Amino acid sequence: MLPMTSSTLRPAVPLLVLIIAGCIIAAIGNGVRTSFGLFTLPMTADLGLSREQWGMAMAIQNLAWGIAQPFAGAFADRVGTGRTIAAGAALYGLGILGMAFSPNAGLITLTAGIVTGVGIAVCSFSVVMAAFGRSVPMEKRSLIFGVATAASSFGQFAFAPISQGFINAFGWQSALIYLAMAILLIIPLSYALRGRTENTTGQADLPFMQALAKAWGYGSYRLLVIGFFVCGFHLAFINVHMPAYLVQCGLSPEVGSWTIAVIGLFNIVGSLLAGYLGGRLPKQMLLATIYFSRAVAIGLFLLIPVSEVTAYAFAAAMGLLWLSTVPLTAGLVSLFFGARYMGMLYGVAFLSHQIGSFTGVWLGGFVFDQTGSYSIVWYLGIVLGLASAALHIPINERGAPSFALKPA
């Protein structure tokens, strides 16, 4: 196991304050982001957008998030987490505000896609977890990562009905303005996460590209990164297209919003459980189990006629499996490479996740426009879940030797 730094035990503020602030940031950032699927029907109807055009904007948002994430993580590692998150929140809010006043597909792609996506990356819970990885002892990181993930899930649970209520009461444009204002609350909270990762005793200090090359040469990390693609595919497709899918099946938009909320509620339990079990059981086997269980849950959902009961049951099952991959994946990255490169190398893994998100969101819109149905994408989700489960089984849960400091 890689040794901890002395700075790992000395955050700039009391550890409890840092954790609480980080969890609130994660809840606001993720809660707003996961509400965007509720805007699918009103925005496409009012702006005359096709489902593919809307899906492309959301897909580009996920891709921009993924591409920016390694750089945001590296920037936070070098410059400081608090500054990074504050800048990201300002950009995130600006993107949502621009989204509210975008009259066509091109501007929606720019504001909701590129600007918002980059803003999400720079203040995302991935950056928050880098601060936790710097400050929390190794043996407790998996649990604290689970707490942060659960907090982001609570944001999803809270913001889904709030956002739908805003849409119903004030219209989608005003609802987006209110969400942009909520994002700005992150800026003062970011002060508690100030500080940057210092060099780790017993661990080499490597330049960005050299560290990335050495990490990619570690086989277990490659498998982890490739498998994380599937997580993004599942989450983004369901989050963006599930509300519209349920309306297509004859249910109300309110059922769609509460389905997203139920996913967030049950993900609190799933994330905490994954964080707890990650400190006691092999993380790679837990990840394989999660991906396999997702495939089973999707298969059962497709076999049983859709109703409010089955929608909420599926949401509960997926909620338990939703972001439970995150504390385990982040825990493995931290174990492989230590806290020194946590922001950057988890960011690279997250890029794979977001490429999966791009694929899931865009493919959902494209397939629907071509066939009038989401069935092909649902079935593909089953296949990918089984493939990811198989990829995680060979992962070795040990530190990467190439990141240890060579003796003089």
TrEMBL record:
Listed PANTHER family: EG:103B4.3 PROTEIN-RELATED, MONOCARBOXYLATE TRANSPORTER
Organism classification: Bacteria, Pseudomonadati, Pseudomonadota, Alphaproteobacteria, Hyphomicrobiales
Signal peptide (from-to): none
InterPro entries registered for this protein in UniProt: MFS (IPR011701), MFS_dom (IPR020846), MFS_trans_sf (IPR036259), Proton-linked_MCT (IPR050327)
Pfam family, one: MFS_1
Segments forming domain Major facilitator superfamily (MFS) profile: 15-399
Record key words, sorted: Membrane, Transmembrane, Transmembrane helix
Organism this protein belongs to: Devosia oryziradicis
PROSITE patterns recorded: MFS
Transmembrane segments: 12-33, 53-72, 84-101, 107-131, 143-163, 175-194, 215-238, 258-278, 285-306, 312-337, 344-364, 376-395
Coiled coil: none
Listed name of the protein: MFS transporter
Lineage top rank: taxon: Bacteria
